[in-house]
Amino acid sequence: MLFLDVSAAQVSPVVSTVEAFGLALCEPAFVDLYLCRERVEELRRNGKVLNAAQIYSYRVPLSLGGQTGSENVEITDVYVHFALTGQIERQIADMPAGTPVSAIKFDTDADKKPWWRFW
To answer: What pTM was estimated for this model as a whole?
Structure first.
């Protein structure tokens, strides 16, 4: 099974089976590392509580120089998050690290189904 780190736009292997994933969820270190329990608790204490179909998202993505602090975190619709973040990451994918980004273009065609949405 793979872990999609949406903050860093990276995919990495974590466990080999569904059963191993279930066991890993019983390990506090795994939960802290992959589910950021303490971070979520902090955000919730500060009034940032998610509803259905919402996700914590960086206002300024880390790939564009954003910081990991709570002040850079906002609640965003999951569809909006992946649609915009995916477009940003595709546009900067071939740039060397540290290259200044002067513009990002967003496709806002509401009728277009995103590549990752299967329903």
So the answer is: 0.73
